[in-house]
Design goal:
The chain is of the alpha/beta class and about 625 residues long. The chain is about 35% helix and about 20% strand. The structure holds fructose -6-phosphate.
Length: about 625
Amino acid sequence: MCGIVAYIGSKEACPIIIKGLQRLEYRGYDSAGIALQQGKELNIYKTKGKVSNLQDFLEGKNIEGTSGMGHTRWATHGVPNDVNAHPHYSESKDLALIHNGIIENYAILKEEMVKRGHTFVSDTDTEVLIHLIEDIQLNEKIGLEEALLQALSEVTGAYAIVLMCKNNPDIMYAARKGSPLVIGVGENEYFMASDATPIVEYTKNVVYLNDEEIAIVTRNNGFTIKNIQNQLKTPYIQELELKLEMLEKGGYDHFMLKEIHEQPRSIKDSMRGRLNAMEGYIRLGGIKEYDQKLINANRIIIVACGTSWHAGLVAEYLFEDLARIPVEVEYASEFRYRNPVIHETDVVIAISQSGETADTLAAIQLAKQKGATIIGICNVVGSSIPRSSHAGSYTHAGPEIGVASTKAFTAQVTVLSLMAIYIAHKRGTISDSRYHQLITELDCIPDKVKQVIDNTNEQIKNIAQSLKDAPNFLYLGRGYNFPVALEGALKLKEISYIHAEGYPAAEMKHGPIALIDEKMPVVVVATNQSAYEKIISNIQEVAARKGRVIAIVNKADNTIKELAEHVIEIPETEEPFSPLLSVIPLQLLSYYIAVYLGKNVDQPRNLAKSVTVE
Ligand code: F6R
């Protein structure tokens, strides 16, 4: 949450920073601001709203300067307004700071500084940190770098920060703990950002800061990295694989639509080099050294949040059904605080698109301390969760920019399917012939996803038009498709702001059935071959109460046609892979409903893509 971008070099900083903030806007969009070193001045320009509001605000102003930093905010402390927007000045206005994360002990620090005469203008924890740095510097009569190190060792919580000093325009400081920060190393120019997306068009060379490290970045003398104990560190410069076109809409109206359409490719990419159906093998290089841990695991615990948690629920069915390993799927935020029982024979799988979700990261750190093996399934290469895991597999879905997750979910389910089949085969819980059947079918999934998109898009557009004014939706599914029902409901809530709930279809009669009347759309995922008759009974129950049934089926038979207002047909597949197909119509449905309602599909209100606060 919150996006950071900074530049120091010989080019004009402002256009680079603004463009970078636009790329990072998925991280938060309550307010935006920029600090520029302009001659002897360190000037701040900031305003409530999106980066486009900041651009309007800067119109006609002097924005010259070859070093500066910008921020796009997702409010934690204090409402989104001009004053709470970053950057924040120190008491003397000689220093300015941008920050992503939460300083947990800010209230005590603030109280102490107020007693010493500090005046705070905002409600933010960030302003407390920059005051603290200056307070230490002046009181202890030490240099800025030393004061920064000391301040960082006094604060608790999480931060990624960039610090500028009016009197030293050729140096910028960056630091991280718990929130991501990457440094772009160009030719006599440097970039600092929350992720590599603002950097990729200028340089491919990056250094990911580790927790409790600071970078001292100079205009003319390179950069150094230290830990907060003041020990020098050798920077590890990596080459980015990210390509610029991955960050553009490519002719689609929204990133979300582009990402839905990318799924045949992104699913294929997540299997590339791992699945060879012709030769009959699955290879998962990233977990090779730990596969015995998985094969012999007494239990798998999956920790995740949101859509990734739904992928975890699909994995529960996969691992239990195929590999016969007991699985628990936990909300990372609950798991980390309930003193969970964890054994050394447990394998904890953390699923996260961003690889930065604070609760998921904390959950694996806890499990690691207790001796469990940690496997990360993440999309963003070099992010914190893979770096804190023993092993893992990247999902390779490419950057997901729409805030509502689509292609990341299907890539996660694909990698988890590969893992479950691989482990099941090694454990002997599926036969050779079943193994070959499954991998042959998995190999066909990208083509089938394409068929779903091509064959249902227009129909779903029409359905969306007819349902867009409903105030509530119910989503039902059974077995492998129960998590899909949850995911469909989440997608609709997130981007259309329509209340929606997902339920196991049979659970409906234990309460939610009371909601059903002629105004209630009930989306039923009825593709499961094994429970088809039972789902038909559930649909009968909805229809009997005049609910508006939208059924996702493999082949529309007469019964379904009579009961449902809309029937969406998708290709058949092996049941374990049905979520990969059945989720697509639900993504499209929520997308078109949100578009018809005029909502901001890619940046829905109150949300952020990367949730780095707990
Ligand atoms: C939903 C969505 C969120 C994320 C959740 C976890 O569309 O995007 O629910 O799934 O915030 O994020 P990651 O996967 O980055 O850990």
